[in-house]
Amino acid sequence: MNRRIAEANDILSGDDKGRTRRAAAAREDIGEAAEILKSGGLVAFPTETVYGLGADAVSEAAVAALYAAKGRPSFNPLIAHIPGLSEAAAQGRFTKEAQKLAEALWPGPLTVVVPVSATCLVTPLARAGLDSLALRAPSHSVAQALLRAVGRPIVAPSANLSGRVSPTSAEHVLADLAGRIDLVLDAGPAEVGVESTIVSFLEDAPRLLRAGAVSPEAIEQILGRRLARPRADSGQSVAAPGMLSSHYAPRARVRMNAADMRDGEAGLDFHGRFLGRQPNLDLSPRGDLAQAAANLFAYLRQLDATGAVTIAVAPIPEQGLGEAINDRLRRAAARR
Ligand code: TXA
Ligand code: MG
């Protein structure tokens, strides 16, 4: 377990605005978190990808409170989190292929979109009224323990204000949401750093809706066929409603594929391109995409805090995790 967990004991957020409590992700705190969720409260918790903001997926009031806390438009549906495939199968209708993929990758950073089942408990508000449902079984031990303690689906978007950079630590969560939520379970930095890969099984061919922690190549290998790609218009369409083109937005402008840093810019480097230039953070000096993904959101926040008007981003290879990293950076760079 993480060092931070061992340090245990509750720490107040120290924020006058709010009474959001931060707790180490120890067993008694997970129990308390489950009670808060069951009574309609909001709890941020760690997953292997990013921190999520949890609410009882069955309760319309809890889901409404979650949308309000994030400032998220309610036409953008949420992912229901469950411990595994057996719990998922009660909520959604799995095709053979959806089942095969979930069996191979769950628990883990994969989200599948399937038609809702007749027994689905997730409130239509959480689904933005759609007759489909996004489901994910996170592998993080704290997320697993929490989901099992609650015993029903928990919707959990990334625990940031809508449109902002996703949180990879409890500090990031509090920076956005202190005073708006009841509790954050702190288990240290998220391991992967970019969100789950979303695959839709609503059409004949499985479609990638969001690049993420699992590379499309790995999924294609498991399914034995190519994934259809996001629709060109998915920026605003209802098929992938959350993939708004301006998302993951720092305050600074983002300039991608920068060959060099210009005067006054802050640098988000990869593999030592901007070596010697300041201010500059290297996502991975050794050019490792997994390391880059883990650092991405924290570094964007840090560079934003320098007050720089523009963040120059070094080229990042468009392969494996690089596809998800570049996707998030393109959204951060989108005009808003
Ligand atoms: O890694 C993750 O997936 C994190 C952690 C906390 O689990 N969660 C996350 O949730 O990234 P969120 O709300 O930030 O992103 C959910 C995405 C949105 O783009 C939303 O539009 C899409 O999932 N989505 C949800 N339900 C959908 C549906 N029925 N059809 C298509 N897209 C859907
Ligand atoms: Mg998000």
Structural class: alpha/beta
Helical residues, percent: 25-40%
Read across the widest sheet, the strand sequence of neighbours is 1-2-9-3-4-8-5-7-6-10-11
| Weakly predicted, low-confidence segments | 1-17, 234-239
Strand fraction equals: 15-25%
Terminal residue distance: 40 Å
> In one word, what is the shape?
globular
Ions and ligands: threonylcarbamoyladenylate, magnesium ion
Task: Please count the beta strands (DSSP E, at least 2 residues each).
Answer: 15
Q: Determine Rg (CA atoms, Å).
A: 19 Å
Reported for the largest beta sheet, the result is: 11 strands, mixed
Count of runs of 4 or more consecutive helical residues: 10
Q: What's the pLDDT, averaged over the residues?
A: 91
Order of helices and strands: HEEHEEHEHHEEHEHEEEHEEEHEH
Describe it:
This protein has about 325 residues and is of the alpha/beta class. Helices cover about 30% and strands about 15% of the residues. The chain has 10 helices and 15 strands. The strands form 2 sheets. It has an 11-stranded mixed beta sheet with strand order 1-2-9-3-4-8-5-7-6-10-11, sandwiched between helices. Strands 12-15-13-14 form a 4-stranded parallel beta sheet, with helices on one face. A hairpin with an 8-residue loop joins strand 1 (about 10) and strand 2. Helix 2 crosses helix 6. The longest helix is centred in the last third of the chain and has 17 residues, at about 290-305. It is globular and about 60 Å long. The N and C termini lie far apart (about 40 Å). About 50% of the residues are buried. The model is unreliable at about 1-15 and about 235-240 (pLDDT under 50). The site of magnesium ion has 3 residues, from loops.
